[in-house]
């Protein structure tokens, strides 16, 4: 598979915004309870999502614009139809990534694409000393038990990732990123292609506000099989 760092040049984030990203994420995590059963946990989770999407926080990157597809990009039916070719094709285009992120929000599963983007950014770290604080922030946000935006990982992948946090490498999150990518590709991507949001783009109409769809976490990563994409930088 082609190196994703070449496929997604638009995901580059400047050094200053990069530091702010992890600083604000870390600050938000401290306000989150570590037990999802506490009263108000869902509301605090939603506030964290809003924080991660503030324009002044992500000016110029996908997380700051994903909720406003029509403002972020004008999508032609000809462009949208190409997203059927593959999940890679969808994510390789800014408008496709924005549309898919907007769709995941309607299913309350936007943490998957946010984790994937965070991993892409993590692998762009320019020096080794940047890895540790970034790795801890990603781990506390998306991977540890009862994390505010916990992604669905199998026990083995979570353990392997946890053990490497103390001395992280650029490949620390490769296995977890690959697992989440595969879940999105085989579970969310087919539903996106049949969604009202995508169909409206095919017909050249502005996507209407899609109804929120309560997702089920009954599936596990073991329900999906197939080769994992190679995210090695």
TrEMBL record:
Domain of life, per lineage: Eukaryota
PROSITE patterns: RGS
Keywords carried by this UniProt record: Signal transduction inhibitor
RGS domain segment(s): 86-202
A UniProt-annotated Pfam family: RGS
SUPFAM superfamilies for this protein: Regulator of G-protein signaling, RGS (SSF48097)
GO biological process, one term: negative regulation of signal transduction
Record-annotated membrane-spanning stretches: none
Keyword Translocase: no
SMART domains attached to this UniProt entry: RGS
InterPro entries, sorted: RGS, RGS_sf, RGS_subdom1/3, RGS_subdomain_2
Designated name of the protein: RGS18 protein
Source species: Brachypodius melanocephalos
């Amino acid at each position: 598979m082609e190196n994703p760092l070449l496929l997604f040049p638009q995901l580059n984030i400047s050094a200053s915004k990069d530091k702010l990203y992890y600083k604000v994420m870390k600050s938000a995590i401290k306000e989150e309870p570590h037990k999802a059963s506490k009263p108000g946990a869902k509301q605090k989770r939603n506030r964290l999502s809003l924080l991660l999407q503030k324009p002044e926080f992500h000016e110029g990157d996908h997380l700051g614009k994903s909720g406003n597809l029509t403002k972020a990009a004008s999508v032609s039916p000809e462009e949208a139809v190409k997203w059927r070719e593959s999940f890679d094709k969808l994510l390789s285009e800014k408008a496709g990534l924005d549309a898919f992120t907007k769709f995941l929000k309607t299913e309350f599963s936007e943490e998957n694409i946010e984790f994937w983007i965070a991993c892409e950014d993590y692998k762009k770290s320019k020096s080794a000393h940047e890895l540790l604080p970034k790795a801890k922030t990603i781990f506390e946000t998306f991977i540890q038990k009862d994390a505010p935006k916990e992604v669905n990982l199998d026990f083995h992948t979570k353990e392997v990732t946890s053990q490497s946090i103390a001395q992280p490498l650029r490949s620390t999150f490769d296995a977890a990123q690959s697992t989440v990518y595969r879940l999105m590709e085989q579970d969310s991507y087919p539903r996106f292609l049949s969604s009202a949001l995508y169909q409206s783009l095919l017909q050249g109409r502005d996507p209407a506000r899609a109804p929120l769809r309560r997702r089920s976490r009954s599936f596990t990563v073991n329900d999906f099989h197939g080769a994992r994409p190679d995210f090695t930088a």
